[in-house]
Amino acid sequence: MAKPYDTIKRFLFQLEPESAHMLAEQALRVLGCCSWLTRPYKHFMLENTILGMDMPNPICLAAGFDKNATMLKGLNQLGFGGVEVGTATPRPQYGNPKPRLFRFAKQESLQNAMGFNNKGVARLVRHLERVSPLACLVGVNVGKNKDTPLKNALKDYQQALQASLGVGNYYVFNLSSPNTPNLRDLQNNSFVGELFSMARGLTHKPLFLKVAPDMSTDALLSVCAGALEHGAHGIIATNTTMDYGLLPGAKSFGGISGRVLKAKSREVFKQIAQAFFGKAILVSVGGIDSAQEAYERIKMGAHFVQIFTAFIYQGPLICRQINQDIVELLQRDSLASLKEAIGIGR
């Protein structure tokens, strides 16, 4: 029997991807005004406190879906434990030329070359200030403007962080998107050290570095260690990949997400967890599309996980379903709570 979302998806997938996203945004804004329609899924076994932040469950939405913080109330109603908004840049920007978002439905994957299209951090802050207290945590993902030279990148990150300090529970520095020219060049010890030293001078709120899956192991671990040494609280692994061989028919630009990234992202996260579990808060993202995969990453050492592409392909009830299934997995393994599962498989 077809699931209700299958019919909706057939319609949405006939539209150009960004047009479908705009319709989804409108639907989520309506849902956010109708709290009586849905009730966020809660279970005591899934609750956790991370860096002083009360997280109702470990399934979060990654940055890039709600770029301007216009859908938070609706996403909160769908039961996410956290929503990461952005990437926000100091100034508004259009992003890269269209078409810049491509579906690969057979592989349940996406390829995007969006280029930090957003309305600027000031607009994002105004939207967040209007949102009532939410059950989910709010992460703010910040980046630099495309036309800002790399030598001035630190100022962009500082400006975006300072502007949004009153509205987020935690903050993420995005140095790993493949869609801003030369941005990944900032994934080096010198810049990362300056970045987190600057940020620690401005706030005591949790700070995370989001890393790419395409670095060598030595370089990756070195950059993560440098970030933690200079004040980062945690690592988010991973962003999209430029390993175009993973996806038949892939474009030669942009970043790939979804099912084809699963094995690569899992392996990168494993390396990070082996090096930094117990020393930092670790977040896994990339190809997570089921409770089994989310639970595996948690047992590897993830304090929480993020989804993105699976939300597009499986629909609005995916968060609720994964959470329900994780409770069953915890009970199967005779664990009293999610906290007992974190890192148990290392």
Short description:
The protein has helices at residues 4-12, 17-32, 72-77, 121-129, 153-164, 189-200, 217-229, 262-276, 291-300, 309-314, 318-332, 338-341; strands at 48-50, 53-55, 59-61, 82-88, 101-104, 109-112, 137-142, 170-174, 207-211, 234-237, 255-258, 281-285, 304-307. The chain has 346 residues and is α/β, with parallel strands linked by helices.
| N→C terminal distance | 39 Å
Name the shape in a single word. globular
Mean pLDDT: 95
Number of helices: 12
Q: What topology, given as strand order, has the largest sheet? A: 3-4-7-8-9-10-12-13
SSE run: HHEEEHEEEHEHEHEHEEHEHEHHH
Could you tell me the radius of gyration in angstroms? 19 Å
| Number of DSSP strand runs | 13
Question: β content, as a range?
Answer: 15-25%
Helix content: 25-40%
Largest sheet: 8 strands, parallel, barrel
The structure class reads: alpha/beta
- Poorly predicted runs: none
Describe this structure in words.
The protein is built from 12 helices and 13 strands. It has 346 residues and is an alpha/beta fold. The chain has an 8-stranded parallel barrel with strand order 3-4-7-8-9-10-12-13, surrounded by 6 helices. The longest helix has 16 residues. It is globular. The chain starts with a helix and ends in a 5-residue tail after the last helix.
Keywords:
13 strands
Give a topology summary.
Layout lengths: L3 H9 L4 H16 L15 E3 L2 E3 L3 E3 L10 H6 L4 E7 L12 E4 L4 E4 L8 H9 L7 E6 L10 H12 L5 E5 L14 H12 L6 E5 L5 H13 L4 E4 L17 E4 L3 H15 L4 E5 L5 H10 L3 E4 L1 H6 L3 H15 L5 H4 L5
Parallel strand pairs: 3-4, 3-13, 4-7, 7-8, 8-9, 9-10, 10-12, 12-13
Antiparallel strand pairs: 1-2, 5-6, 6-11
Helix pairs in contact: 5-6, 6-7, 7-8, 9-11
